[in-house]
């Protein structure tokens, strides 16, 4: 098969590993810089052009779209969908998961466990906003933040008020969230491919750090999931409509709580921790989906 990876940097570990894994399985894998794509949008024959030439037909596309280029990246992914290319994560699912507020509202509606969360633009009563999520300490997050940037723990109600007022003064969109103390500065990253969790690791924050992101000095180790944790991760991915994603969970006294669903999960930390060929599993999934699609089309043709 001929498969495209939409990525701005061919040297990133995840992009490189996906290309290596695909080629090891005999596929032709091209890395395409998303922002250098431009589209011919017509009703009869939509195309994607790249460096002055029309791109060939791809059997599948793997979008690795950074948060800063979500709008344009999803437009490119959508164009491939219009051309009949199988997209591992459809554009609408990526957009859904990137909007933190929307994704949390969708998960909440389906009864998925998560920390109590408040959202406001100009609350008349900041004290009540804090009280409504259980009171201090609270976690305050920028909606547009990634890799732990823009996430602050406020230990007291007074500190929380000051931080919220400061963010609002900058006209930033924020979430105010219950702090799950029993998690102990750790979370669990579940990697979901298709309809199953293929790997999981526990990420522990550095000493004195409540954020567990590996980019912030956290450590990772293999973890055994409970049935509830596994089911929660699979359900969260399904609600978002993602076939390949990272679901971040917290272990709380009331069960697993979803923190985030990531549509472009990094592979380096979790492959290193688990020793699994997770990039190869992505291509196993693609192969299965393409074969299933061909069988369906063949059956329809015979009918």
Q: What would the keywords be for this entry?
A:
about 300 residues; alpha+beta; Rossmann fold; D-amino Acid Aminotransferase, Chain A, domain 1; 3 domains; five-stranded antiparallel beta sheet; four-stranded parallel beta sheet; 16 strands
List the topology elements.
Layout lengths: L1 E5 L6 H12 L3 E5 L4 E4 L6 E4 L2 E2 L5 E4 L6 H13 L3 E2 L3 H8 L1 H10 L7 E4 L5 H7 L5 E5 L8 E4 L2 H13 L4 E5 L7 E8 L2 E9 L14 E4 L4 H14 L3 E9 L2 E8 L5 H7 L3 H25 L1
Parallel strand pairs: 1-2, 1-6, 6-7
Antiparallel strand pairs: 3-4, 4-5, 8-11, 9-10, 9-11, 12-13, 12-15, 13-14, 15-16
* CATH-defined superfamily of the largest domain: ATP-grasp fold, B domain
CATH topology of the largest domain: D-amino Acid Aminotransferase, Chain A, domain 1
Stretches where pLDDT is under 50 for at least 5 consecutive residues are none
Q: Any idea what the shape is?
A: globular
The assembly state of the depicted protein chains is: single chain
Beta-strand fraction estimate: 25-35%
User: Which structural class is indicated by helix and strand composition?
Assistant: alpha+beta
Kindly report the spatial arrangement of strands forming the biggest sheet.
14-13-12-15-16
Q: In angstroms, what separates the terminal alpha carbons?
A: 27 Å
Task: Indicate the CATH architecture of the largest domain.
Answer: 2-Layer Sandwich
């Amino acid at each position: 098969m001929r498969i495209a990876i939409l990525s701005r940097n061919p040297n990133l570990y995840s992009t490189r590993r996906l290309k290596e894994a695909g080629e090891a399985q005999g596929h032709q894998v091209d890395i395409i810089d998303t922002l250098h794509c431009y589209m011919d949008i017509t009703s009869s024959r939509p195309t994607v052009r790249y460096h002055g030439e029309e791109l060939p037909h791809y059997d599948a596309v793997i979008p690795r779209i950074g948060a800063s280029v979500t709008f344009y990246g999803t437009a490119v992914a959508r164009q491939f969908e219009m051309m009949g290319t199988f997209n591992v994560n459809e554009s609408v699912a990526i957009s859904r998961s990137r909007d933190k507020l929307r994704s949390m509202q969708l998960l909440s509606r389906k009864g998925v466990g998560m920390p109590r969360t408040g959202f406001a633009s100009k609350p008349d009563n900041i004290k009540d906003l804090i009280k409504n999520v259980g009171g201090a300490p609270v976690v305050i997050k920028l909606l547009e933040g990634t890799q732990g940037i823009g996430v602050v723990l406020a230990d007291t109600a007074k500190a929380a008020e000051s931080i919220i007022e400061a963010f609002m003064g900058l006209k930033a969109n924020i979430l105010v969230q219950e702090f799950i103390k029993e998690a102990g500065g750790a979370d669990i990253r579940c990697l979901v491919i298709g309809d199953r969790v293929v790997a999981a690791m526990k990420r522990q924050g550095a000493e004195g750090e409540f954020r567990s992101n590996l980019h912030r000095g956290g450590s990772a180790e293999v973890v055994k999931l409970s049935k509830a944790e596994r089911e929660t991760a699979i359900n969260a991915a399904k609600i978002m409509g993602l076939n390949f994603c990272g679901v971040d969970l917290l272990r709380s006294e009331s069960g697993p709580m979803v923190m985030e669903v990531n549509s472009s999960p990094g592979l380096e930390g979790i492959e290193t921790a688990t020793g699994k060929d997770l990039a190869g599993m992505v291509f196993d999934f693609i192969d299965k989906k393409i074969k299933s699609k061909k069988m369906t089309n063949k059956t329809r043709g015979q009918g």
